[in-house]
Amino acid sequence: MEFNIKSGSPEKQRVACVIVGIYETRKLTLAADLLDRISNGFISDVIRRGDMEGKLGSTLLLHSVPHTLCDRVLLVGLGKEREFRAKEYREATRAAVRALGQTASGEAVSYLSELTVKKHDVEWMIEQACVVTLDTLYRFDTYRSKADEHGRELRKLTLAVPRRSDLADGERGLARGLSIAAGMKLAKDLGNTPGNVCTPAYLAETARTLAADFGAETKVLGREEISALGMGAFLAVAQGADTEPQFIELVYRGAADAEEKPLVLVGKGITFDSGGISLKPGEGMDEMKYDMGGAAAVLGTFRAVVEMKLPINLVALVPTCENMPSGRALKPGDIVTSMAGKTIEVLNTDAEGRLILCDALTYAERFEPAAVIDVATLTGACIIALGHVATGLYSNQDSLARDLAAAGEEVGDRAWHMPLWDEYQELLKSPFADMANIGGRPGGSITAACFLARFAKAYDWAHLDIAGTAWKSGKDKGSTGRPVPLLVQFLQDRADIALGRTVRRGRPRRDAHDTHDVHDAD
User: Fold this and answer.
1) In the prediction, which pLDDT does 511 show?
2) Which of 14, 104, 164, 349 qualifies as a FRET site for 457, CA 20 to 30 Å off?
3) What pLDDT, on a 0 to 100 scale, did the predictor assign at position 9?
4) Contact, 322 vs 199, CB < 8 A?
């Protein structure tokens, strides 16, 4: 769909629908008030009758509002004005897009992007409106013989900014939002694609296409090359499957200094996880196609970064294979040797993600990275700890964890800093090898992170356990595209710091209610 940025008065918009906000106190926003004045109190009269109370996410569609040029006005509830923050802005925007989908409006102008959200500027408002809109409109109909009817598609959305002088900031926000949304779409498409299609070879081809489209470098290693590197833990997981394992490397050199230390993202790429010999229960096993959510997020983030042309050097590493039971499969009690030379007693073959990641983390050392972040649908224990709201965040550097958590807060893709204390390492002891691959049920997400930490001592490292946030079950089943927004924001922050710019979080924006000269253009 098409997006535009515009500064202009709502009553002058000759369009199918104009979107404005109402607070829970029935207070009109500036744009809604202008429409109310030109219509001789039509909107406030509707509100007085009780048809719209302004509750967050509520909507009311009005037709033929007097003396306006638009066909419809969509009122969107904003909740309590004093509580209107970033989360509420996103929720109101999402509600507006959903409501538009129930109308015949092919085009709309939204004045929600003119609202004031504390500590956020115009660029952020437009970026988030774009990301939320495209996320809400996302559909995955690739494998349907007949696509679902979703009403008339929204073809064009114009996002209003308060002043003409805000247009440049709005355009920057739009460009960022489109890139982030495209990265999320790639991650969601990969996650939703069935495991018989999205194989390790499919992920490798996706990486090659990314490299070709955006001028990056790529390398894909097969079984023999992986074996030559000594990645015994990775290959042990892959040995039960008929599909060939792949180790994907993508390199983007965007920094002014090509030799600047890169940031490295590592994504778990188990394209289907049966659990191996430690077979999972049959119920819900179809969702194990999402076990490559870390790989999908890393590829989606890489796409967004190279499209935005961030001035950083970035490496993406994806170890990818299937975890299947067979006569060749890894067995409980087997001992494997990792690329780092450390031996691992495999007590449960369903704790396979850490086995492929540990070799990738060792491989990452060759880049002398500024920092390494691995992303993985690693443990059900993380879902028990944090539910489906926050990603589990672990790190050997508190400052890195703080930066990642802050980036997530900025874009509504939250992560929670979890402990990584030495006492938990005791649970990984093995009488027969250097370590076991599980530490028992207590603190399962923590001990999984502790396992990975043993292979990340050479650099600053963080681990994102996205088991609870990478996809949704039930009627809304599907990939979420998380944590692409978090990672992109983190990398943008790093780029800003490298250029000597202030990280934009907390930068005050001008208040749209301070001046009324904003609506001087059509």
Assistant:
1) 38
2) 349
3) 95
4) yes
Backbone angles phi, psi at 299, to 5 degrees: -65, -40
What pLDDT, on the 0 to 100 scale, is given for residue 402? 98
**Which residues of the chain have a pLDDT value below 50?**
506-522
Three-state DSSP class for 41? coil
How many helical (H) and strand (E) elements, i.e. helices and strands, does the chain have? Answer: 15, 20
User: What pTM did the predictor assign?
Assistant: 0.95
Place of tokens 């967004």: 304
Q: Which amino acid is at 21?
A: G
Q: What is the pLDDT of residue 498?
A: 83
For position 501, what pLDDT does the model report? 80
280 is annotated as an active-site residue = yes
State the binding site for Mn(2+).
268, 273, 291, 350, 352
Sign of CA dihedral 251, 255, 257, 259: negative
Query: What length does the chain have?
Result: 522
What are the start-end ranges of the H helices in 4-62? 30-38, 42-48
- In order of start, what are the domains of the chain with their CATH numbers? 2-179 (3.40.220.10), 193-334+352-414+440-498 (3.40.630.10)
The one catalytic residue in 223, 280, 342, 504 is 280
175: enclosing H helix or E strand: helix 167-192
354 is an active site residue: yes
Catalytic site residue from 72, 185, 188, 354: 354
Is residue 380 helix, strand or coil? helix
Residue type, 264: V
CB burial of 76-98 (b: ≥16 within 10 Å; e: otherwise) equals bbbbebeebebebbbbbbbbbbe
Q: Round to whole Å and give the CA distance between 476 and 153.
A: 20
Residue ranges at the known binding site: 268, 273, 291, 350, 352
